[in-house]
Amino acid sequence: EIVLTQSPGTLSLSPGERATLSCRASQSVSSNFLAWYQQKPGQAPRLLIYGASSRATGIPDRFSGSGSGTDFTLTISRLEPEDFAVYYCQQHGGSPRYTFGQGTKLEIK
Amino acid sequence: EVQLLESGGGLVQPGGSLRLSCEGSGFTFSSYAMSWVRQAPGKGLEWVSTISGSGGSTYYADSVKGRFTISRDNSKNALYLHMYSLRAEDTAIYYCARDAVRFDYWGQGTLVTVSS
Predict the structure, then answer these.
(1) Residue B2: what pLDDT?
(2) What is the Cα–Cα distance from B52 to A65, expressed in whole angstroms?
């Protein structure tokens, strides 16, 4: 089983700052199969990034993804008030078919 | 516009059964695999099950294998999750999601509570 470990668990930043979220896999993940989601309280998750670096439809360009192998990063270049939420990485492959990281909570400082 | 609408959640006793439904619209339903993902209260996301577009292939998380059955009716644009032998640890919001190797569209979720 591929385990995804996200860090930090909680990130406290102010609007306008840059956020860098990490997702580390226990074994190599195909970049084609690494995605990032945003979840706000009481809402379903929303796809942000797929294929490690491709933005989903309607996602602002302040969101970017990078990485390969076992280390992946989600960067929010300049935080807007609506960006404070929980972020999950997710991979596809092997067994189980999909796994998620435990999440990073991005909170307002 | 792609829409997914779940239904069927509720309160069930341990050992009981429940069937969740998800109706899709705004896309060619049979062209996509579909999945169920759950989230226990205050916890993270857990993939539960996936079914191929034709319904011919199904996949399950070990935590539900042998107790849950995923199915679909493409004539009705409907996805189902039949849940048996429910346990307290199955308590969660259950989301259906369109599966394109990533989950690109999600429903609003339906809450399943397993409690006596």
Answers:
(1) 97
(2) 28
Q: Which residues of chain B have pLDDT under 50?
A: none
All residues of chain B having their beta carbon less than 8 Å from the beta carbon of residue A46 are 106
Give dist(CA A69, CA A31) in Å, integer.
7
E runs forming strands in A2-93: 4-7, 10-13, 19-29, 34-39, 46-50, 54-55, 63-76, 86-92
Contact check, Cβ <8 Å, B45/A32: no
Q: How far is A102 from chain B (nearest CA, A)?
A: 6
- A59 close contact with B: CB closer than 8 A: no
Positive or negative, the CA dihedral B56, B62, B67, B68 is: negative
Beta bridge pairs of residue A39: A86
Long-range Cβ pairs for the range B53-62 (8 Å, 24+)? B54/B30, B59/A97, B61/A96, B62/A96
Shortest Cα–Cα distance, B59 to chain A (Å): 7
pLDDT in tens, A39-79: 999 999 999 999 999 999 999 999 999 999 999 999 999 99
B47 neighbourhood in chain A, CB within 8 Å:
96-100
Q: Decide if A100 and B46 are in contact by the 8 Å CB cutoff.
A: yes
